[in-house]
Design brief:
Helix content is 71%, strand content 7%. It has three helices and two strands; from the N terminus they run ααββα.
Length: 110
């Protein structure tokens, strides 16, 4: 799992799904739906490639970050669980909020 708990992977996938659904809701046209479908295929390939790589590797132990108070050893020193979650999830969360913002702006303008 690249030392990340499954919850992190689920939150990342969910963030990108929220973004794409918000864009679909904001645009609503057939041309936009086609482009969003292509984008969804790329997101699926991104996460699917990681999944395939994990299935090809030997079985891995559960992530150390599954437990509260745990740390991840990095090249720059240990990072607590919350810091790891924050660093990994900040971009997907901002992307999801961006999509929601576009959807809200689109609803107000229309």
């Amino acid at each position: 799992m690249f030392e990340l708990p499954t919850a992190v992977w689920g939150l990342m996938i969910g963030s990108y799904a929220i973004f794409l659904l918000a864009l679909l809701g904001a645009t609503g046209g057939a041309h936009a739906a086609f482009a969003i479908t292509i984008s969804a295929a790329y997101v699926t390939m991104f996460f699917g490639t990681a999944r395939v790589m994990l299935r090809q590797s030997p079985p891995q132990a559960r992530s150390a970050l599954n437990h509260a108070g745990s740390v991840l050893q990095t090249a720059y020193g240990p990072l607590p669980r919350g810091a790891v979650f924050g660093q990994v999830l900040i971009v997907p969360a901002v992307v999801a909020f961006f999509g929601i913002g576009i959807c809200i702006i689109s609803a107000v303008v229309m």
